[in-house]
Amino acid sequence: MALGSASTAPGSPVTTFAGGAAPPSRRVLRTCILTELLRDVENDPSTTAPGGATSDWHTHDVLDGTGAVRCGAVRCELLPLFEALRQMRRPRSGFTWASRLDVQQLRTLARERRPLSHAVLNELRPRRAVPHLRDLLMHHGVLPPADRDLLLFEAWLADWLPTIGDREHRQTLNHFVRWHILRRLRDITASGPIGSYHDKQARLHITRAVSFLEWLANNGVDLGGCTQANLDAWQAEDYLDRRHAQPFLRWCMDARRVHRLRVPTRATDNPAPLDQHQ
């Protein structure tokens, strides 16, 4: 990024800028730094020189005569975030805050041709930087409000499902998650955040469903051929842990993927409550 070529005359303590321009103010410098981070490359003509080569750009490429950000210099959807960082009263604390972001992720968003959405953010890597960036974008109105725990769950699911090696198991679990788990979680968000409890329960229901499918396969039984004796034997081995597969078992019966069976229940010393959706 070139803000102008500076030169200092021999023996002179004063720095002058190309064309005799005055040194840019801290606000302008901050604006240019942020613009470099968030600029819309495709719609910003100052970023492309004749022949397609990338050119340097200067302060006048970013601001118009009134000091406002020039149209196209920053992706329009990111302007609220840009202005919030640019106008902070204490720039040092603002840039300390901004430095926590994954810079490459912001640049990726600025150059993304699709409309910005939570789904687009879910594709960013590394995932560990996404929640903070998402919170910033929601806070400044770039993205609509959404349940943070639900979004984290969906991101985990997108990474976890492809790890299921058996194709039929993966398809069955994908249907279970789509038509039962996610629908239930989204119903909960209608009245409030899902919170860590519902997130943990949903993950348990899914991972124990995998355990059940793997147990059947290891015993030479497919899901459609599961019998009451198979189900009783599986539950008897570790009831406290395997009871978390009960929502999956009931969904399979409702979806006619298995015959109607009796799901074993018993009292526990510390039972986990099941709500009406389970």
Q: In this structure, how is the largest beta sheet organized? A: 2 strands, antiparallel
Radius of gyration: 28 Å
Low-pLDDT segments: 1-24, 44-62
Question: Which geometry do the CA atoms define?
Answer: elongated
For the termini, the CA-CA separation is: 57 Å
Give, in spatial order, the strands making up the sheet with the most strands. Answer: 1-2
Describe what you observe in this structure.
The N terminus is likely disordered. Helix 9 packs antiparallel against helix 10. This protein has 278 residues and is mainly alpha-helical. It has a two-stranded antiparallel sheet with strand order 1-2. It contains 13 helices and two strands. Helix content is 50%, strand content 2%.
Could you give the topology of this structure?
Elements: E1 6-8, E2 15-17, H1 26-38, H2 59-62, H3 79-86, H4 91-98, H5 103-111, H6 118-122, H7 130-139, H8 148-160, H9 167-189, H10 195-218, H11 228-237, H12 239-242, H13 246-254
Antiparallel strand pairs: 1-2
Helix pairs in contact: 9-10
In short:
The chain is mainly α.
Throw out a few tags for this protein.
278 residues, mainly alpha, two-stranded antiparallel sheet, 2 strands, 2% strand, disordered N terminus
